[in-house]
Amino acid sequence: MSQRMKLFIFLLIINLIVIVIYLVWNHIRRKENLRSVWMKAVMMFLCPVVGPMFVLLSFILFKLFSSQGMDLSDVVFSKDRTENFLRPDEEMERNMVSLEEALEVTDKKSLRTLMLNVIRGDYQNSLSSINLALNSKDSETAHYAASILQDVLNNFRSQVQEKYLLCQEENEQQVENCVNLVEYMNPILEQKVLTDIEQKSMTDKMQEVLQKAWDLDKIRISSTVYEKVCQRLLEIKDYEKCTLWCDRAMEQYPRVLSSYTCQLKLCFSCGNKEKFFQVMQELRSSDIIIDNETLELIRTFM
Known about the structure:
It is elongated and about 120 Å long. It has helices at about 5-30, 35-45, 50-65, 90-95, 100, 110-120, 125-130, 140-170, 175-190, 195-215, 225-235, 240-250, 255-270, 275-285, 290-300. The protein contains 15 helices and no strands. About 70% of the residues lie in helices and about 0% in strands. It has about 300 residues and is mainly α. It folds into three domains: about 5-50; about 95-170; about 175-300, Serine Threonine Protein Phosphatase 5, Tetratricopeptide repeat.
């Protein structure tokens, strides 16, 4: 037997030993897919020397780079902190119109379909528009609207009563309960879907619980809460109480725009030009940035 043949047989034996060691090692580790292990073993058997060298080199490179520390500072694991950006549904957007315009549609089937779509969606902030559907010539559409309003308002009344009782309990959460009730009532009251008598009653209750919170700890009342109660009192034309809360807002938040806008709207509603221009001058003298709504109010009054 020639020297070359002996060397070739020796390499085959070494190659076979390496394959056996590889199979036993992976059997003990049990970290790699069994199918992948056998495929590599067959490759090493068919490609002596080259096959084992390739597997060994790939293993070394993998360990070399995977052993380096990874910067996970930008990685977010909590699902609560992620935002999913969905592609807009252009077909649906093209077919969307305001509910007020849709009520003018004479096609009863289309109008009913629209009301059903509104019911299936988030209609809590569309109650004033749904209220218009009560006067629809289509009785089925009016029935849908009445059902929605009845369910929402019944739930609103029961929740207000429940939260109002919590506000009467003298504990550490009393101020927080009062403020939370004001913020709960405002989205419904600002849409003016209640009767005039009930709207006034609910606004008085809103002002009452805020008064309780103010007596206990006025520091915990935010400027937005002051603004909300002032707006609701203006709507029922209770100018005396509105003046009281406007003054309190100005006293507690003298550098917040809402304190000035509440004063301006009150003067506008009462027709008090002298006071209006006085507040406007104070606002101009301050370093507060005026928004478009306030500018429009000033232009209208002037």
